[in-house]
Amino acid sequence: MLRQCLKWREEIDIENHQNRQTPEVLKLLPNISLPIGKAKNGSPIVYLNYTGADMKGLFRCIQTKDFMWWLCYELEMADAVVRSTSKPYKGLTLVCDYNRISMDVLSKQNLDFEKQFNPIMEKNFPEIVNKVLILNGSTVLHIFLKLVKYLIPKETLSKLEFLKDPKDLKKFIDDDQLIGHYGGTLVDEDGDPKFSSKIIYPTKIPESFYIAPNFADYELNSDYTKVEIGRGKEISVAVEVATIGFSIIWFVLSKDGELEIGINFKAESGDVEPVEPMSKVNCDVCPESGSKICSKVGTYTVVIRNNAVLKSKKVAYNVEVLKEDDSEPILTKL
């Protein structure tokens, strides 16, 4: 384990932070802040606020490997603080606020990221989490956790505590160690109860941060279907959904300009109704991804349309049905 960890650290060059500049977009997203106060069990507290976090926008602004590096670096810094202030080593107590979490967390890009990141945490930071206190656990969050729970060790899952009210934090944190924003008495040096100097409260990411994708990367990736859609033409990808609550997840990238994307549902009577209206997306500028929780059983069709009059467009796409059972989800590629 130690040898593998050292090899991983060398491969990603985790200590070479001097030559890396923090991408501006990360200043708009939840951060693994330096610990603020201590829980009743003596473990330092880190606050992660996901309220309004624009995860979909994030993956349009930064490469996954760069985002992964910065998360690992933040974990490294937090871990160093824990080791210097908490003896014996007790790990971190994470206070995670998921108020108004969006459907973006169910996107293919975010789920793919979780598949990569969770094993890294398990192998290289196995003891960093002591307790995870989850606030405002919405339906979307519970769906997300169901989809990724098979990636999380049982020992870590046992550390999750779902709290209905911020007042419940006081079961784990004394008033003088809990920040004022959540009902405690602890405030920043300038009197700010939200500790805005250390904790990021996310906002919508401006499109000016978006980066253009390299279509050639997707042409070489077997996970994506490549087609050329003629001018004024469209393609339809039909999927069968057998159980209410399953999700359709899509990813579309164009090489030659905007497209229109929508989802239709075909009833047993043969009637077709739109469940996701056709809308224009600039997926030549940044990939378009989304998800739809199915409220009916039957046939759903993802429609990708080239609305151009003069030219055909090369497109790479992936459509999947995300199925759940009692043990773990199964990704079915279509």
UniProtKB/TrEMBL annotation:
UniProt GO cellular component terms: cytoplasm
Database matches in Pfam families: CRAL_TRIO
The protein, known as: Uncharacterized protein
